[in-house]
Design brief:
With 472 residues, this protein is an alpha/beta fold. Among the domains are: 65 residues, no CATH class; 180 residues, TIM Barrel, CATH 3.20.20. It contains 17 helices and 20 strands. The strands form 4 sheets. Strands 13-12-1-5-3-18-19 form a 7-stranded antiparallel beta sheet. The protein has a 6-stranded parallel beta sheet with strand order 7-6-11-10-9-8. Helix 8 packs across helix 9. The longest helix has 25 residues. The radius of gyration is 26 Å and the shape is globular.
Length: 472
């Protein structure tokens, strides 16, 4: 997607302080010192326990293409410091001009359920390179993870009814709209109204018509009939432009004329008013008129809470169009993802663990080159997650403590395991081919189903990792 939407270099998709720190590492003659950074979120969005990881396909493309273009270097050459002098030495800019990413990246597969403080992505690379990536990687992962998680919540609330992404017009720019459509499909949306996203990712595209179509004609019934003439097999009539009840009657009249021509009205859409009451009234009128198969779709500021409320109230709505609150990740608006140094090699080649300490407990970080081991029962259901440092030999998963405090419980000896972080990039080059979007979507659905019945899920620190946190 990045290649489709951007024709130039993305090396400057970063904050200035990443470049000034890179320059300082270069000046200190330690730009090749190997370091490990862990990307994780502090708190899961929307008050739930986990998030669905997304955005990794863009990470692959970004790292594979990472390079400073000549005009990037020209721009940096013109930057000045607080006294008006040049910000970067020419020799450093020459260094950047030939810089390519040469490190290793491990990541959880897209669609995987990830819990707070578990790494979604881990970078092992020369510290100058790893530091330069921070802002871009967070930008590429945070937003789609937020939207995939929101979409999964809406899809679950709909209970199997199709949920359609209608959010492009409310997205924070064209790229955000396309990214959101892909993430929403991963999370469980059945289709999108975003045609560009449909083209780029082969997502099914769906839509009805706007109020402006009805308003373009002197008579609502005439508008429906004209639409039916053009698209006889694609008629879901929007019935609330003027008066919803008369709109339902006009849709029925148009449906009868369609039937006379050998076609069937697919349904109607409600976009305002008391959706529950109007849907029940519409269902009764459609059934009485001989249209029991005509579906009722609803839109209008829907989210998972409103969908669940309507479902629980018995509203006969079977198709849900969601827009603003999906594409903007409302009410959270952002995932609190961060990218922190976990370990660095010293001059004798040994790893030194690093962690941030803070008066704000939530801003403290875990030291180490973190990996997540997920334990599963005989039926493949998740039992617990253990964080461990995969640079430490002799990890002991029989001991440790819970991430939130307290002793970790013993796990069944027969439990199967899988490590969540998998190779994404080695030596700066992508590993293998990315899975297709349908496979990612199916994986996400399985993750949501597996964790839906789990309460009090434990995330623990392996014993040696737990012991290592005290003095870092």
């Amino acid at each position: 997607m990045l290649r489709s939407l951007n024709s130039g270099s993305l090396a400057l998709l970063t904050d200035l302080y990443q470049l000034t720190m890179a320059y300082a590492h270069w000046c200190a003659a330690d730009p090749e010192r190997e370091a490990v950074f862990n990307l994780f979120f502090r708190e899961a969005p929307f008050g739930q326990a986990f998030a669905l990881a997304a955005g990794l396909e863009d990470v692959r493309d970004y790292l594979a293409d990472f390079a400073f273009a000549p005009d990037d270097i020209d721009y940096l050459r013109g930057l000045t410091d607080a006294r008006g002098g040049r910000l970067f030495e020419p020799a450093f800019l020459d260094y950047l001009a030939t810089l390519r990413f040469t490190g290793d990246v491990d990541a959880v597969p897209e669609g995987t359920a990830v819990f707070p403080r578990e790494p979604m992505l881990r970078v092992r690379a020369p510290i100058l390179q790893a530091q330069l990536l921070e802002t871009a990687l967070l930008n590429l992962v945070n937003f789609p993870t937020l939207i995939a998680t929101k979409a999964a919540r809406m899809a679950r609330a709909a209970g199997g009814d199709p949920v359609l992404d209608f959010g492009l017009r409310k997205a924070h720019g064209p790229q955000a709209g396309v990214i959101a459509a892909r993430a929403a499909y991963i999370g469980g949306c059945a289709a999108t109204a975003n045609v560009l996203a449909g083209k780029l990712f082969d997502i099914p595209v769906r839509g009805t018509h706007a109020h402006s179509w009805v308003m373009a004609f002197d008579d609502e019934l005439d508008a429906f009939l004209r639409y039916a003439e053009a698209l006889p097999n694609n008629c879901i009539f929007l019935v609330d432009t003027y008066d919803t009840r008369s709109g339902i009657d006009n849709a029925i009249a148009a449906g009868r004329q369609l039937r006379e021509r050998g076609h069937e009205m697919l349904g109607i859409r409600l976009d305002s008013g008391d959706l529950g009451a109007l849907a029940r009234e519409a269902r009764a009128r459609l059934d009485a008129a001989g249209f029991p198969d005509a579906r009722i779709a609803a839109s209008s500021s829907l989210d998972e809470h409103r969908i669940a409320e309507l479902k629980q109230g018995g509203a006969p709505i079977v198709l849900w169009g969601v827009g603003t609150r999906l594409t903007t990740g409302a009410p959270d608006g952002a995932l609190d993802g961060v990218y922190k140094l976990g370990a660095i090699r010293d001059d004798d080649g040994r790893w030194r663990q690093r962690a941030k300490r803070s008066d704000t407990a939530d801003k403290q970080t875990l030291a180490g080159s973190l990996q997540v081991r997920r334990f599963l029962d005989a039926d493949g259901r998740p039992l617990a997650d253990w964080l461990y440092d995969d640079e430490v030999v002799g990890a002991d998963f029989r001991a440790g403590r819970l991430l939130a405090g307290g002793e970790a419980r013993a796990l069944p000896a027969a439990a199967s395991t899988r490590d969540l972080l998998q190779p994404l990039v080695r030596g700066g080059r992508p590993v293998g081919d990315p899975p297709d979007l349908t496979s990612i979507r199916e994986h996400a659905a399985g993750e949501c189903s597996a964790f839906a019945a789990v309460t009090g899920y434990e995330v623990a620190l392996e014993a040696r990792l737990a012991d290592a946190q005290g003095d870092k």
